[in-house]
Amino acid sequence: MDPAGTRPGAIRPDDHACGPLDGPPVVLYGDATCPRCQDATRFLRAAPVRLVWRHLVLRARGPRPRALAGALEAAARQDAFWPFLDRLLADPGRQDDPDLWALARELGLDVERFERDRRDEAATARIDADLADGLSAGASGTPAIVVAGGVDHGIPDEAWIQALLAERAT
User: Fold this and answer.
1) pTM to 2 decimals?
2) Domain 16-169 belongs in CATH node 1.20.1600.10
3) Which strand (E) or helix (H) includes residue 43?
4) Residue in 24, 60, 62, 67 with CA at minimum distance from that of residue 44
5) Which of 9, 28, 150, 152 has the fewest CB atoms in 10 Å of its CB?
């Protein structure tokens, strides 16, 4: 078995992760503008899994996914990745720049820092690295969910979670 972080989809120390530390790891490659990603993320946030979000920003979807990924990276630098993502997913019709600034203010973020950080080289590098990792893992569209080295492009449901938990128990 490869050491953690060496194979595509492996959990990394710098990942955006939430959920129980002992839950089965689930890596979701997503795009905050994608309705299927929104559904998958909401479902997995409520499941007993260790959820990791990585950006899968595909050029074919236009410039907005990259702008939102940059905003999420900027929010992460102020320890607000998950609250920011949750709010984006709760109101997908409000994802333009003024909406992002308002959301940053509502979450108590330094908006000037947020604006600088979302467009800087480190955010771009992180988004590009997530994309490369996702493509290497077999992601061909969003959402792409990687569990135990396999990739699934569907939206998980209760049966999927139960199968995951049962597999982990064996």
Assistant:
1) 0.91
2) no
3) helix 35-46
4) 24
5) 150
